[in-house]
């Protein structure tokens, strides 16, 4: 092109500034790739002044230009380009580079007048201290430097607030986000800032403050659905189930409507805050829930709260969504609230069972059993090697893959075993004791379960093994209870004894064991076991297993059903017996 001429440079730099703004606004996305245009403009300025800047970094180039170019007519165009360069750097989270540039753009008098107090954010201090030079009326601008300065201040506060939030410095994050909320931005961005304020307050242990910020976000922009999702999470934390379910229902309804995004409230600004702030933590905080996730959360919360009829309705709706297309309806990213699909089926079966729809529960479990059976190997060994190499060997990756396969096989084994367990209880509720015994026996006699219980188990597989042990115990209790119903007391006793071998001290198994001995007229043994059990805190030994790792939701109803129902009457009978024997030693 033409060689640079000093008189034409103000116009040239203004045209460059406008063209870069248009290029950014036209893409309506994060700023990328336009920085080279600024670099070429700075090189032409140096060339016009008889200097050279080839080989310098962008930061060094700006320092050289601002220190060596003193022409008054170039100050305003250079400051505008500097603000644009700062926007590029903010978008790339290069906050240090942006601060260094504004230190160069501001003279000592400006910095002294602004006066950075102790603890004040340096970048915001430098931005506020920067005085935008007066702009010539003859050179039209598509976005003034003054407006750009306001947007930069808001973006800088927002970005740094997010950084502090991610680092766990919550008071600093709160202060910076509040600064951003008072800045210059669209309603959409303001709602996002209030959402982040709500998340920050929640992490600080201030749920009521969090709710205030999140509700403010929804008042500003009701289409900020992540705020509604966070509202539900805060209510869940507070234990306010009714409010949580209302928030989730509103969220699901809003997601189903799929309202098109509203137009920006500042359409004439080509550089906007949303183009400068796009960090991973913001994407995480503003993650949009999929309708299927929200429907599952509604089902799960209803089941946990005992709202069985509502839970059944939501689970069946969710399963209907799956029928519409698995890939379209189920988010596969790591942040999803959804468990594995077999677990959802088992939870649905649990809800159906509690709602008295036992035959439907049996059918639901059959689906899980049929789909997992082929995924379980005939042999499964999960013992840990005694000798571990100090340094990772070339086969370490292969070993990790095998461990992952075993974990998956254990999960499938647990799901199938839970299916049999639920079917056993469902048949029992239908009064079909023999069929219930058959289903409980399928799990109790499962060879693969026995093979999975090794003396030394890798720590990463402990949760799955503990779940399997609990399922086997519950199956033995279930079958033993049915044997008692059928009058097969000896077989019942064997099941309860076996159960206590799996989890010693389990209160349900211990109580059933006492009842079986009592029915076999082995009253002295029954009384001795009862005394031993009642002297220790109920379930002290049995509940230590898996403590801190709650059992899956699909097992909760089975745990309740396995609870011994006649504790008071059995205790009364044993006390009477003990009282009689103490008065009559010969008996």
Helical residues, percent? 55-70%
Number of strands: 0
Distance between the termini: 117 Å
Order of helices and strands: HHHHHHHHHHHHHHHHHHHHHHHHHHHHH
Report the mean per-residue pLDDT as an integer.
84
Q: Which spans of ≥5 residues are poorly predicted at pLDDT below 50?
A: 384-398, 447-455, 539-548
Shape: elongated
Radius of gyration from the CA trace? 34 Å
Category from helices, strands and their pairing: mainly alpha
Number of helices: 29
Strand content: under 5%
Largest sheet: none
Q: Can you lay out the helices and strands and say which pair or pack?
A:
Layout lengths: L8 H19 L7 H14 L9 H11 L3 H20 L3 H11 L2 H7 L7 H8 L15 H23 L2 H12 L5 H17 L3 H14 L4 H14 L2 H17 L15 H4 L3 H6 L5 H14 L3 H16 L2 H4 L11 H14 L3 H15 L23 H34 L3 H12 L2 H6 L9 H24 L3 H14 L4 H13 L3 H13 L20 H6 L5 H17 L4
Helix pairs in contact: 1-2, 1-4, 2-3, 3-5, 4-5, 4-8, 5-7, 6-7, 7-8, 8-9, 9-10, 10-11, 10-12, 11-12, 12-13, 13-16, 16-17, 17-19, 19-20, 19-21, 20-21, 21-22, 21-24, 22-24, 24-25, 24-26, 25-26, 26-27, 27-29
